[in-house]
Amino acid sequence: MERIADGSVAKKADWPWQASLQVDGIHFCGATLISEVWLLTAAHCFESYKNPKRWTASFGTTLSPPLMRQEVQSVVIHEDYASHKHDDDIAVVKLSTPVIFSDEVHRVCLPDATFEALPKSKVFVTGWGALKANGPFPNTLREVEVEIISNDICNQVHVYGGAVSSGMICAGFLKGKLDACEGDSGGPLVIARDGNIWYLIGIVSWGMDCGKENKPGVYTKVTHYRDWIKSKTGI
Question: Which intervals hold domain Peptidase S1 (predicted)?
């Protein structure tokens, strides 16, 4: 389980695309609803538990009780993902039955492959992850506003020293504090555009510790994998 530290409690229906991926009914990772049947998440969530029958997805701002729970039909992990590296940390999850959209549960928009979130753009990450490194998971969804950090800055020697590839995006603050944390993995990094339409631009992937100075969160860059997502889901 990987990487909201120092965030705030999310209001009901603010992030209706957020899902909790659970193993045997226990929260394990975040995920994002991109259609009635498909969730987008991180490949590394499935390293320990590969059998889709053990997984369920829950929706709503609280883990217990959830607003809705769905069974998982299948999991498709990126063909090039390998656990010893962070590249291609992306997977899609197909639900057994379609979700009926409402104010509280509906999909997020996916950006075109050409979309670029500029450095310093304000973005939000959400999840039920730990509030600090090795801390407990909260029952209520949390949110934190962070900003995009350029890959050039993120690859500086004192930050991640070249480990951030073109398929990744950094967000947070070099001074630390606000960040994703353990249990947020696979969850959404979103940006508001065109008025108030929210687009998914990142998937919580990796980082060093939580909210640590010069160690911002690193996210799988959704636009980089736009064709892969379409090839697996038709979306």
Answer: 4-234
